[in-house]
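Below sits our specimen:

——
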Amino acid sequence: MDKFFLRLVINAVALYAAVALIPAIEPLPGTSWVSYLGLALIFGFLNALVRPLLKFLTCPLIILTLGLFTLVINTLLFWLTGRIGQNFGIGFSVDGFWPAFLGGLIVSIVSVVLTAVFKDEKRG
């Protein structure tokens, strides 16, 4: 259970970093840290259920582009997280493909870095 909460917090921090760093991604009014935890839950749910299906369906494209198409999948999941969050009154709005692409890239990078940091702490 600790692993779940750690992953949830890492996703929340990564989503917050993407929204804070990209000016074309606007948080909805009244978005707080609790909202980012809700968004992280939505993002984790999409990563667990939709991502494997998308990777399976686009496997030839992923192989053809040597894995770069996974960045497009990250973009879609980031955008979809914002849209689903808007339906619940939390989330952010994205002004196009490139801001969503950069947001997905930032979420991936921050997630990898924080996961590496907290895994090292847990081993020590």
Observations:
- The longest helix spans residues 97-123.
- Residues 2-110 form one domain.
